[in-house]
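Re: that backbone. Tokens:
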């Protein structure tokens, strides 16, 4: 399997800081999955907002903005009747939304956090929806298995983006699509484009959606703060707010200044 060089030779302070924080993010991710047994947090993305209002069932309204990000990504092509894989499914909210609203034939989700997968298997019971443990760099599925692979706000934590793209290509059927959205800092965007263009997948569309993510963070701010204050111990709250992108955080300000951008891609396996 072809592996691609992952980082420029000279790492910036931002890159080094991100590498230092990665283990802390993983601990927080594990903590959320361990403590939130009632399923109050089923989405871990920053959300999406525009002038359209997606019609949602009453129980989904509280997660409107994270759901709208999934809708924007997953609805890039019609999923009805297709076999879909979500890599980095987290606590399963996105896969559940896709299964209930976009009517694929099946959707499978996997994630590297065992606690999150245990939660998904307890919490969701829908025909065609299933979850398992797995690593994005070594997907637990055979070749040419899926019509669509989806990946939302997860890849920026992967140790080897090139290998991940090879795995996406491997599990996709010929003619299948990779629907992908994530954030990158300014210095990493050119490198991401190089990785995507050097992969075996063909880039069909690139879209910068930072303004829509910022709008969602603004509209969802109070809900996020309330959840953090109720679920997180005081000692973890500042770090959890950074994880959630609330208005006072470095993450939120990096979107405002465009030090970071949020990107959406459609890629295809010929």
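Recovered sequence:
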């Amino acid at each position: 399997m072809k592996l691609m060089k992952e980082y420029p030779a000279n790492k910036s302070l931002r890159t080094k800081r991100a590498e230092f924080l990665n283990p802390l993010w993983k601990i927080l991710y594990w903590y959320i999955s361990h403590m939130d047994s009632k399923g109050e947090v089923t989405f871990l993305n920053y959300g999406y907002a525009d002038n359209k209002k997606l019609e949602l069932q009453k129980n989904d309204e509280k997660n409107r903005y994270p759901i709208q990000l999934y809708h924007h990504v997953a609805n890039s092509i019609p999923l009805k009747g297709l076999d879909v894989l979500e890599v980095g499914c987290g606590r399963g909210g996105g896969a559940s939304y896709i299964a209930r609203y976009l009517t694929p034939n099946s959707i499978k989700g996997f994630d590297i956090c065992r606690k999150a997968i245990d939660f998904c298997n307890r919490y969701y019971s829908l025909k065609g929806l299933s979850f398992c443990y797995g690593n994005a760099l070594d997907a637990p599925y055979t070749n040419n298995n899926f019509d669509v692979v989806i990946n939302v706000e997860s890849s920026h934590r992967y140790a080897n983006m090139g290998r991940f793209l090879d795995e996406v290509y491997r599990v996709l059927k010929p003619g299948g699509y990779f629907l992908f959205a994530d954030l990158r800092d300014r210095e990493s965007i050119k490198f991401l484009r190089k990785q995507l263009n050097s992969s075996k997948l063909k880039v069909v569309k690139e879209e910068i959606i930072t303004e829509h993510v910022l709008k969602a963070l603004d509209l969802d701010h109070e809900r996020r703060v309330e959840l953090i204050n109720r679920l997180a111990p005081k000692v973890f709250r500042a770090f959890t707010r950074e994880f959630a992108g609330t208005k006072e955080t470095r993450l939120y300000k990096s979107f405002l200044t465009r030090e970071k951008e949020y990107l959406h891609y459609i890629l295809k396996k010929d």
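Residues 13-268 form a domain with the Rossmann fold fold (CATH 3.40.50.150). The chain has ten helices and seven strands.
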